[in-house]
Amino acid sequence: MSDTQIIELDEPESTAIQEPWRAGSLTMMAAPLVVVALLISLVVPSLATKPSPTPEPTPGGGWLITTTPQTAAPVVATPAAATSGESGDPEVLDDHRWVGISPTYPARGDVAEAVLQGTAYVIGGTGTSEDGQRVYRYARDGTRERVADLPISLDHAMAATLEDRIYVFGGFVFGQASARVFSLGLNDARWIEHSLMPLGRAAGGAAVWGGRIWLVGGVAGNGSWLSDVWSWDGRGRWSTGFSRLPTPRDHLAVSTYRGSICAAGGNGGERAFECYEPARNEWTRMPDLRKG
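Above: the chain sequence. Below: its structure as tokens.
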């Protein structure tokens, strides 16, 4: 028996056949990257130029989020502030700040104020021994000029403009409530005196409605609060007997608003806000003023 050797021959491993490089191969590999880069170039600029929310006040006291274009990083808008519970449609100032107008002048207090043909008049007041008679007219740029002095020294007087004249009512004359009335025209060299008020009155407010000047609030000669409402026609005739101010007080603000004469704040009614309708001879209590 012959010895037979069986020899297993290993088959050679197949080797990968390298194909020559083709331009299409790189294109297939780079296409996804190009698509991604294109998407990024479209999305990122839109995010970078996304307008940021700008809060604006609403008539109800809240904040409305609007957008203003700007080149800034994306901003997430915060929720609008809750609106107050006050009713009505209050007017909102566009600019919630005071702007200083130069030059400055020595301080004066307890003055009367009125506007005549676009210029503001500051009348009497306390400060120096002469301030009670001084009257200044202020231009829009803050410069002022002195006009005719009052015949007497006054502080805490009431003033309003009717038919191109400024009228000044009452006020304190060395601590006593006066009943005297004066007026001044634009180019007048002196004040004209008119018929007396029914009583001495000071630290009240004046407003014009229906071609008449109305006096509200203030104190009488004995220092007590006046709830009487008086009306003057500009020709020396006074009318009284109107519905009384519900909350008597002094140092209050008085003005016309939507056909009514409104009295706001003051000593004795710091948050009181009441409006009088002359056509109905009736006062209405409005929502209290906000705390300062």
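The radius of gyration is 39 Å.
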